[in-house]
Amino acid sequence: MSEVQIVKVDDGGVNARILARQAQADFRRIEAASVKMTARFTSAEGKRLFVRMFNTLQLNTHFISVIARTRLDHDEIAKIEAALRTQIEQASERLNRSIDEAEVLFQAHGITAVATYDALPLELDVHVLSSLSRRYLELLGKLDQLMPLMQTLEIHEVLSSQQLDVQRAALKRQVRNIANGARSQATALRRRMNQLARPEAADAKEASASAAAPVQNAQMADADRDADDVAWLPPEEADAVETSEASEALVGVNDLAGADVPLRQLQGEAAGVACDAGDGLNLDDAAGDAIGSASGPSI
Q1: How much is the pLDDT for 213?
Q2: Residue 37 carries which DSSP code?
Q3: Given 3, 66, 76, 158, which is the most exposed site by the fewest CB atoms within 10 A?
Q4: Can you tell me the distance from the alpha carbon of 251 to that of 171, in angstroms, rounded to the nearest whole number?
């Protein structure tokens, strides 16, 4: 007789929904090497904490251990790393103690089977960047191991639903606080690095301006000197320049008179030439000379 299923079970949709709700972490700027490990989570709590917190902790601990160490005091970075490691160890000890207590309760109440999940496990390759990341991944694995044990005790009424919720929430909070603490530390270090960079940028800008000031002053002095040389001429040279400009202007008028140009246009141009030359030429004399030299037909 073939097996008949009376319920529909998950075929991967749960994991797809969990992964779809979480934005992809950007590792494109991470140049560090990583160890590839296979992670497998069966509980809902383990899956969600891994997806939401693991990459957050990895990126922030990488910033603390690698990037911030290049600009800030190494002793301060070492203290932050030690504090994070202590948090992970404390959470790991609590999970180990909870697992041991659950196994004692299993033996005391004659429970031999552990509750299992119908949803497919979340299994994927993880790129582990540091020892802190590896420790945190192991911590998530212990949490994932404890969740079905606690659920089994609740099913057999060894634990009440309220006790299960309280203990489960406390364990999840402790694991989550580690990743949040790493993010807070990385944010504080990033802010300090920005504060240190502002005076350096201001000093560099001031040094650049100081270096450019002598060049600009020299250029301005050369420009003023050239203007003074052009503006001042001896009186006899100034008279020669004015006489030359007037002669060139009259030659232009004579050239116009040689062509078939109306008298009114010649008179107007002669008047403009006399005004520009500024040497006291008579407008009527200039126009008469231009007309007398014209050889074209009469107008």
Answers
A1: 57
A2: E
A3: 3
A4: 105
Alpha carbons within 13 A on the beta-carbon side of 42: 12
Give the list of residues 6+ apart from residue 41 with CB closer than 8 angstroms, or none.
47, 50, 121, 122, 123, 140, 141, 144
Q: At a CB cut-off of 8 Å and minimum separation 6, what does 260 contact? A: 296, 297
What is the pLDDT, as a whole number, of residue 183?
Answer: 95
- The overall pTM is greater than 0.70: no
Would you state the pLDDT for residue 9? Answer: 81
Structure tokens at 268: 């107007």
pLDDT grade, residue 236 (50/70/90)? low
Burial grade of 192 (CB within 10 A; 0-12, 13-18, 19 or more): middle
Report helix, strand or coil for 224: helix
In which band, very low, low, confident or very high, does the pLDDT at 4 lie, cut at 50, 70 and 90? low
**Whole-angstrom Cα distance, residue 140 to residue 54?**
9
Structure tokens at 137: 């991944």
Average pLDDT taken over every residue of the chain? 79
Residue 172 CA to residue 197 CA, distance in Å, equals: 38
What distances in angstroms separate CA 156 from CA 84, 117, 138, 202, one per listed residue?
37, 16, 28, 69
**Residue 204, Cβ density class (10 Å: 0-12 exposed, 13-18 middle, ≥19 buried):** exposed
